Amino acid sequence: MLVIGNRYELDPESCREGGMGEVWTGYDKRLDRSVAVKIIRVDRLSEGQPKRELIRRFVREARAAARLEHPGVPAVYDCGTWGEDLYMVLQLVNGRSLDEIMHAAGAVPAPWAVAIAAQVCSVLAVAHDHQLVHRDITPANLMLCRDGSVKVLDFGVAALLTPSATQLTETGIVLGTPRYMAPEQARSGTTSPQSDLYSLGVVLREMLTGPVGAAGPTEPATHDDSLLAGSVQGLLTTLLTALLATSPAERPPSATAVHEILAGLCGDLPPFPGYVDTGSPHPLRMYADALGRLRQPSCAVDVAKPPLSSRSGASGLPEKNR
């Protein structure tokens, strides 16, 4: 059995290839707990991927993820070197990726799609506040846990918004998953909080309609339309149109603004058998239920007139859509 740092035992049956290397299920002998171990194999780096750049990106991932204190981000426990390779030890997340769920079940029940997207916005709001763009919001990087919470995985291609950080990416290397990239990210690698929101829009659309090929504004069709009132369907259509706007300036101004809209659309969540356990109380849901009763008048949002764009007019909708 492989052991890293005389501390972390790796399950030989658990290795999964990832965008930054390998991900293993491990066991922390010192603290007696299961963990996830991410390893970047320096000797396997392909030509054209500068070794120094990828190493710096990996170290940056560990530091950036460690700063994001949020229940929707797996905690970083440790990082270090293993021979010529690098490793990072993270909280082990038990759940199913949205990619797995959608391939097995097709579209996600509409109320759950809204709730999942709202949770992702909560994580993005914190990341963007720390001057971090995720750059790879995809169903494979979103994990739905048995208690109904969502974890946003792999800040490994996150880019600092500071000018010096852009120098870490060599010209011609575009990071992310093409199918979910914002147009400006696919063209030139340019990213911003609005590029994350575009990717979230693609994911939200796929949750509502099932996986599709190309992204673009569409009417959200669900496999149980009765779960959403007609007015909510209309607001989701408007929100998707704004999220998937070609120009970043026409997208919502922030993840916080999108969260407020989605939170206003959230109602009671139906059972989601096979993926969310509703048979027993979960501590996280108990905690969130109490905290969620706090209301601040200044945060109230008129969902009939959502602030979808920084170029909104009096109606709250982007001018080109009115």
Record the SSE blueprint.
Elements: E1 3-4, E2 8-10, E3 16-18, E4 21-28, E5 33-40, H1 51-67, E6 76-82, E7 85-91, E8 95-97, H2 98-105, H3 110-129, E9 132-133, E10 142-145, E11 150-152, E12 159-160, H4 183-188, H5 193-209, H6 230-243, H7 255-265, H8 283-291
Antiparallel strand pairs: 1-2, 2-4, 3-4, 4-5, 5-7, 6-7, 8-10, 9-12, 10-11
Helix pairs in contact: 3-5, 3-7, 5-6, 6-7
Overview of the molecule:
Residues 302-322 are annotated as: Disordered. With 322 residues, the chain is of the alpha+beta class. The protein is built from eight helices and twelve strands. The chain has helices at residues 51-67, 98-105, 110-129, 183-188, 193-209, 230-243, 255-265, 283-291; strands at residues 3-4, 8-10, 16-18, 21-28, 33-40, 76-82, 85-91, 95-97, 132-133, 142-145, 150-152, 159-160. The strands form three sheets. Strands 1, 2, 3, 4, 5, 6 and 7 form a seven-stranded antiparallel beta sheet that branches. A three-stranded antiparallel beta sheet has the order 8-10-11. Helix 3 (110-129) runs antiparallel to helix 5, helix 3 packs antiparallel against helix 7 (255-265) and helix 6 (230-243) packs antiparallel against helix 7. The protein is globular, with a radius of gyration of 20 Å. The model is unreliable at 163-172, 213-227, 299-306 and 312-322 (pLDDT under 50).
